[in-house]
Design brief:
The complex is a heterodimer of chains A (about 300) and B (about 280). By secondary structure, chain A is mainly alpha-helical. Helices cover about 75% and strands about 5% of the residues of chain A. The relative contact order of chain A is 0.19. Chain B is of the alpha/beta class and about 280 residues long. In chain B, about 40% of the residues lie in helices and about 25% in strands. In chain B, the strands form two sheets. In chain B, strands 6-7-8-3-9-10 form a six-stranded mixed sheet, with helices on both faces. In chain B, strands 2-1-4-5 form a four-stranded antiparallel sheet, with helices on one face. In chain B, α5 packs across α7 and α7 packs parallel to α8. The chains are: A mainly alpha (about 300), B alpha/beta (about 280). Chain B: Keywords: Amino-acid transport, ATP-binding, Nucleotide-binding, Transport. Chain B: One of its GO terms (biological process) is L-amino acid transport. Chain B: GO terms for molecular function: ATP binding; ATP hydrolysis activity; branched-chain amino acid transmembrane transporter activity.
Chain lengths: ~300, ~280
């Protein structure tokens, strides 16, 4: 057995899994606070990547500036999507809302195809991100290390935000019961807008990171689909579950690749393995590992 | 009978305005009509006034529209597809009928919801901090200390609020209201699901808040006896309307109130007679 390859793949799995976890958190954040299943999460991520890339490559902005602009852009974009597309749907059946987010996903795909083209594009090598550092005999690209650090940072900020800040607490209250939140003086509309803004913004960051790690392309939207098993595994309404789910899916993918490459030789097991897990988990624990029971309406 | 009561109510309202007691009134609900789902009429012209610094009790049977009244005042009906279709609500002389709930909290109206409205998956401190959501610049620590001075028992509870006993949850709900530093607290059945001893304790606290902090209280209750004991004024509601109002002492002496809400009253009647008597003597 090729232990070194296995270890290498495991490390990759953890790093990618953390990134899935971040995107899954964004997904759960929207679901928890606004009861919307956002199938366009992957497109949010790609949009963030494209915006940052275009600013760096075409406008020649320094990366940091482009990154900050991307954050602002994504936050505003999230608020606009919520206000224009989803606010009128409040109180409509859940299936309509799902159809609308699927529509949004297709619409964004096509729009980005049209504006940014069909090809994958790389970020200029600003961080020396392709250089490799060796930790304990394992080779890890700097870009991966950066991605891991950033994922951990985002998770820490999420934890701090929901635990200690006024708006974070307000968002949790709104997720628990909107009428109680209102009776405490919390504006539910504002909270909804904030949830979408944060979710879009953080997805955008994940998009930029993925762009640096590999390349920006419209097919990155597959992360949005990958994240779905992660979210289901963790439980649709649990932020911790999202992170754990992301990790599980990331590691599993790489294990599948290992098994496939070494023994099975099926090819492409990498892509579909998470969905097999999804099916198994749904059979054993329909509410996910951390989910609460009263969400069976999905 | 019903005509007589109606005239009593309207005379009472007119009398208030005439004698200039009006500035003493912190909240006045004028002829408010509430409709749910655009067809179900729940409040049918509600009139009531809460005097500043006093406890006003709003009594009535199940389904009379008491909770709906409180939600109409705090504008929380939209979430249940309800709407104030007629009438006006005035708070501190301002028309606040269609002012958003978050603004009302900032202006000093706070509703302690039925079933306490505790955020069960959050800790006691987090619940208290959310009480002060409308006051972002407040010194959180000293405010929480102040609440603990009223409810020392809460200080020992570090876990999730969902694990508190019913009485503790009610105290947390009242403590959370204090965090908002309100001028007017609306309480929806604070005695619900509590043992008699706890009910007494909760009512004593309500009285203390009223006396020590000068907070005006509008109290919705099923437990008419307790409510009338601490209230200054009282209203009795039936079918979405006020059918009787007066000072708490007056109502406590009222034969009909004794009969319907306080139990007993007068000589004991047989069950059969009581039934026919009730049918004849509905409030409306």
């Amino acid at each position: 057995m090729n232990t070194e390859l296995l270890l290498q793949l495991l490390v990759n799995g953890v790093i990618v899994g953390m990134l899935y976890g971040v995107v899954a958190m964004c997904f759960v954040l929207i679901y928890k606070s606004t009861q919307v299943v956002n199938f366009a999460q992957g497109e949010f991520l790609v949009l963030g990547g494209w915006v940052c890339l275009s600013l760096v490559v075409q406008m020649g902005l320094p990366f940091i500036l482009a990154f900050i602009f991307t954050l602002v852009f994504m936050a505003i974009f999230g608020i606009l999507v919520q206000q224009i597309i989803l606010r009128p749907l409040i109180g409509e059946p859940i299936i309509s809302v799902i159809m609308v987010t699927i529509g949004l996903s297709i619409f964004m795909q096509s729009l980005m195809n049209w504006i940014f083209g069909n090809d994958a594009k790389r970020f200029p090598d600003i961080f020396g991100s392709l250089s490799v550092i060796t930790i304990g005999g394992l080779n890890v690209e700097t870009a991966y290390v950066m991605s891991l650090v950033l994922s951990l940072l985002i998770m820490a900020v999420f934890y701090f935000f929901f635990r200690f800040t006024r708006h974070g607490l307000a968002m949790r209250a709104t997720a628990f019961n909107q009428q109680i939140a209102q009776s405490l003086g919390i504006s539910v509309k504002q909270t909804f807008a904030m949830a979408w803004a944060i979710s879009a913004l953080v997805s955008g960051v994940a998009g930029v990171v993925m762009g640096i790690v590999s390349a920006v392309s419209n097919s990155l939207a597959f992360v949005g689909i990958k994240v779905f098993p992660a979210v289901i595994v963790g439980g649709l309404d649990s932020i911790v579950g999202a992170v754990v789910g992301g990790l599980i899916i990331g590691v599993l993918e790489n294990l599948a690749e290992f098994a496939d490459g070494e023994y099975l030789h099926i090819g492409n097991l990498y892509t579909i393995a998470p969905f097999y897990v999804l099916i198994v988990i749904l059979m054993i624990k329909p509410y996910g590992l951390f989910g609460t029971k009263d969400i069976e309406r999905i | 009978m019903s005509a007589e009561i109606e005239t009593v109510v309207s005379e009472g309202a007119a009398g208030d305005a005439a004698s200039g007691v009006a500035d003493d009134v912190i909240l006045s609900v004028n002829n408010v009509e509430v409709v749910f789902n655009e067809v179900i009429l729940v409040l049918r012209g509600l009139n009531l006034k809460a005097r500043r610094g006093k406890i006003t009790a709003l009594l009535g049977t199940n389904g009379a529209g008491k909770s709906t009244s409180l939600k109409a005042i705090t504008n929380l009906l939209a979430m249940e597809d309800g709407e104030v279709t007629r009438g006006s609500i005035e708070y501190e002389g301002q028309n606040v009928t269609h002012v958003g709930p978050e603004k009302l909290v900032r202006q000093g109206i706070f509703l302690v919801m039925e079933g306490r409205g505790i955020l069960q998956d959050m800790t006691v401190t987090e619940n208290l901090r959310l009480g002060a959501y409308s006051r972002p610049k407040v010194n959180m620590k000293s405010e929480i200390e102040r609440v603990y001075s009223y409810f020392p028992r809460l200080q020992e509870r570090t876990g999730l609020a969902g694990y508190l006993s019913g009485g503790e949850q009610q105290m947390l709900a009242i403590g959370r209201a204090l965090m908002a530093e309100p001028k007017l607290i609306l309480m929806d059945e604070p005695s619900m699901g509590l043992s008699p001893r706890l009910v007494k304790e909760v009512f004593e606290i309500i009285q203390r808040l009223n006396k020590e902090l000068g907070i005006t209280i509008l109290l919705v209750e099923q437990n008419a006896k307790m409510a009338l004991k601490i209230a200054d004024d009282a209203y009795i509601m039936e079918n979405g309307k006020i059918v009787l109002d007066g000072s708490a002492e007056e109502l406590m002496e009222n034969e009909d109130v004794k009969e319907f809400y306080l139990g007993g009253g007068g000589e004991r009647r047989s069950f059969k007679n009581l039934k026919s008597f009730k049918r004849r003597k509905r409030w409306l």
